[in-house]
Amino acid sequence: MADKDASNTPNTNTIYSQSHRNQTYSSTNNPPSEEPPRRALKPGLYVPLLAFFSPETEELDESTVAQHAIRMAKAGAMGLITQGTYGEAAHLSHTERARITRTTRHAVAAAGYPQLPLIVGCGAPSTSETIELCQDAYESGADYALILPPSTYRAQYTLPSLKSFFQDVAGASPIPVLVYNYPAVTGVDLDAETLASLAGHPNLVGCKLTCNDMGKLNRLVASVQPATAVERGSGFMCFGGSADATLQTLVGGAGDAGPFGV
């Protein structure tokens, strides 16, 4: 678990501070010797996908998972998200998470959308398990990891310790990381200044704000200057987190990753 009294100094523990980026891509979608395709995040609407189960056995319904992903791709989604709040991540084993990610990646590729970015929720209570989930997501075909702050002992965390958590994870993750701010679920609400400071990490490339605080979103956008439909921007993407925030996020110069369509 991230040290609750950690300072702003980057962690020098080699487990977390050294890059663990793999030189090969082990998803069955690509031969192991090839680098993964580069799927950039672009401004637009990103859809958090549902997880589906058999009503009789409660086993994963991979056929429906695939059909749902293809439907959202055909509808014009700029990217897809698995293992988010709507993806039942809290109730899935690591193996089930990987199966959903692989199924989604293979389904959209086979349907003619191989360049669609896939963001995968990888949040966990500890730093080490979060890194493990990032690795699993990478091996299953994910392009980006979406990570909630740890919240089991949230009353004991300080902003410096939360920053250290994200920096440690980003330093070890084989895929770029987005910060997921969802205080209604975690009880942790990261402010614009903290998020802007995390934007300086080379492997922290964006955030999803499901706090629906438009003032925070606009302050953050003004600070980090994300990409828009007409500007290349800094490379740090800012997403609103619900359909209700779509207009405000687009006006403010951000994308949206709200629950659009099922």
Automatic annotation (TrEMBL):
Biased composition (Polar residues): 7-25
Residue ranges, annotated region (Disordered): 1-40
Gene Ontology MF terms: 4-hydroxy-tetrahydrodipicolinate synthase activity
Gene3D superfamilies named in the record: Aldolase class I
SMART domains named in the record: DHDPS
Family annotation (InterPro entries): Aldolase_TIM, DapA-like
SUPFAM superfamilies in the record: Aldolase
PANTHER family, sorted: 4-HYDROXY-2-OXOGLUTARATE ALDOLASE, MITOCHONDRIAL-RELATED (PTHR12128:SF52), DIHYDRODIPICOLINATE SYNTHASE (PTHR12128)
Name the UniProt record assigns to this protein: Dihydrodipicolinate synthetase family protein
Organism: Aspergillus fumigatiaffinis
